[in-house]
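[step 3/7] inverse_fold.run input=structure_tokens len=513
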């Protein structure tokens, strides 16, 4: 790569979203720990640095601080929210914790024209999410934008090329946020727009070769989704026949999915594949378990133990490959995100056992879903695979609220298949980014024929999103929803009610568990 704009992570839930926006603008970026060394940053050939937001207050004990090397680095800097407060605190300004906090949409007024805000209006809508605010600017800085609640909504030191914004330009609610980021990247830092997601393929292949070495063997946890498929193709390109894919049928898959995955991978990709029937193992381990975090950790450990068992039969494969993505890492508060807050444990990140015997290979760990799809097309993955909706690693276990059993799995499998079939028929599958059914631990009274029923409830959910970090519920046509409801109730014994989830993320997550 020719150059990059790294983002230093201070724990914001949208830190990876900043990286995504930078990449969308054609500049390579990685999320690095806030206490990263200058050598690690320089290795990326940086043209500037962005400081993310975060949940801390700059004055509280243990709050993450600015790297000591940054003020003398000569690099342009953009601080976002906590990053702006940190710039002020470190360089001699004053940060206060007022009683009034500012969360949500806000209007800000620019103090005049400035390169950071080029091609944006003098008054614009932004998204605020902060408790502390700056009360006095550091020496050399001037106000670039303000509003009554936040007199220093943006600041800049043109001599040093250091800037700060109290709002979040990375979220879609900041109307001109992408323009502001583009101005920082291209005008202030001088970056070009030459980076594309397909560039990940060559880079990821090289990283795999370096990690695995000339003789290492890898087994790849294959789920049938686009993430694990792209991971497998990248690793196969890197090390060839030293890769063996392992597909585990855990009994938690969608209707006919196991048969489809096995047939497609063996016949289309010609990569060695071992299929393991572990349905009884998983269901036995999950018996009477209702807590979603416990489910995820049980499933994560069970997967690893099976892969370790298979590795011993493959000349002791030392490496386990997974299709872990950026959103998995951020929501799990994985070890490389020191200040992150755990939203839910992803079975392939925080759910891994501490005594795992194999080393992880995760070629997609710092990629977003759209980047994985671009890489998949680059690698020749069929379009129907590339555009499959995401499916959680723990599978239907986290779409059954409460304990998991085979009858409840069969009920959910059939409901989910009906929903997806109707979406495809109506032309809405590609118009939504994720859609699925959930079996609730709720029974209600119904009338079927002339009789009273007391039966299960299915919730259906469809979302639209650009990044899976935020999402909105899909406005599906009423007649489509009516067909789905009618088919589920009439075709699946034991279900008499269907509801549609109209929650956004946040405050909800995409999955129910």
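[step 3/7] decode complete -> sequence:
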């Amino acid at each position: 790569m020719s150059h990059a704009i790294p983002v230093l992570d201070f724990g914001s839930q949208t830190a990876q979203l900043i990286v995504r926006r930078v990449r969308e603008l054609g500049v390579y970026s990685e999320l690095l720990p806030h206490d990263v060394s200058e050598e690690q940053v320089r290795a990326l050939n940086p043209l500037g640095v962005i400081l993310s937001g975060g949940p801390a207050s700059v004055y509280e004990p243990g709050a993450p601080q600015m790297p000591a090397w940054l003020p003398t680095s000569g690099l342009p800097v953009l601080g976002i929210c906590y990053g702006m407060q940190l710039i002020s605190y470190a360089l001699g300004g004053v940060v206060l914790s007022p009683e009034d906090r500012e969360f949500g949409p806000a209007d800000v007024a620019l103090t005049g024209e400035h390169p950071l805000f080029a091609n944006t209006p003098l008054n614009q809508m932004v998204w605020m999410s902060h408790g502390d605010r700056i009360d006095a600017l550091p020496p050399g800085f001037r106000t670039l934008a303000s509003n009554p609640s936040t007199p220093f909504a943006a600041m800049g030191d043109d001599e040093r090329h250091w800037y700060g914004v109290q709002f979040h330009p990375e979220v879609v609610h900041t109307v001109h946020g992408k323009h502001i980021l583009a101005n920082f990247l291209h005008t202030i830092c001088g970056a070009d727009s030459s980076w594309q997601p397909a560039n990940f393929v060559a880079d990821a292949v090289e990283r795999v070769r370096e990690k695995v070495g000339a003789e290492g063997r890898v087994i790849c946890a294959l789920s049938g989704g686009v993430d694990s498929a792209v991971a497998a193709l990248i690793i196969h390109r890197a090390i060839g026949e030293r890769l063996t894919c392992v597909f585990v049928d855990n009994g938690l898959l969608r209707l006919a999915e196991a048969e489809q995955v096995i047939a497609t991978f063996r016949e289309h990709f010609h990569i060695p594949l071992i299929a393991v029937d572990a349905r009884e193992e998983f269901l036995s381990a999950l018996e009477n378990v209702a807590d979603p975090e416990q489910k995820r950790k049980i499933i994560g450990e069970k997967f690893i133990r099976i892969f370790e068992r298979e590795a011993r039969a493959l000349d002791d494969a030392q490496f386990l490959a997974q299709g872990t993505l950026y959103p998995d890492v951020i929501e799990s508060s994985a070890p490389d995100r020191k200040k992150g807050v755990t939203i839910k444990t992803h079975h392939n990140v925080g759910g891994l056992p501490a005594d795992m015997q194999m080393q992880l290979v995760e070629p997609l760990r710092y990629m977003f879903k759209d980047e994985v799809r671009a890489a998949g097309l680059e690698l020749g993955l069929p379009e129907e695979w590339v555009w499959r909706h995401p499916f959680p690693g723990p599978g239907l276990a986290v779409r059954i609220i409460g304990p998991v059993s085979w009858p409840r799995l069969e009920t959910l499998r059939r409901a989910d298949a009906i929903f997806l079939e109707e979406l495809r028929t109506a032309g809405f599958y590609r118009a939504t980014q994720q859609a699925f059914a959930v079996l609730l631990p709720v029974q209600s009274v119904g009338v079927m024929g002339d009789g009273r029923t007391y039966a299960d409830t299915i919730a259906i959910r469809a979302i639209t999103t650009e990044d899976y970090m935020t999402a909105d519920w899909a406005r599906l046509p009423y007649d489509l929803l009516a067909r789905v409801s009618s088919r589920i109730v009439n075709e699946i014994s034991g279900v008499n009610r269907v509801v549609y989830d109209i929650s956004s993320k946040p405050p909800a997550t995409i999955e129910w568990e």
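[step 4/7] annotate
The chain has 14 helices and 20 strands.
Residues 292-312 form the longest helix (21 residues).
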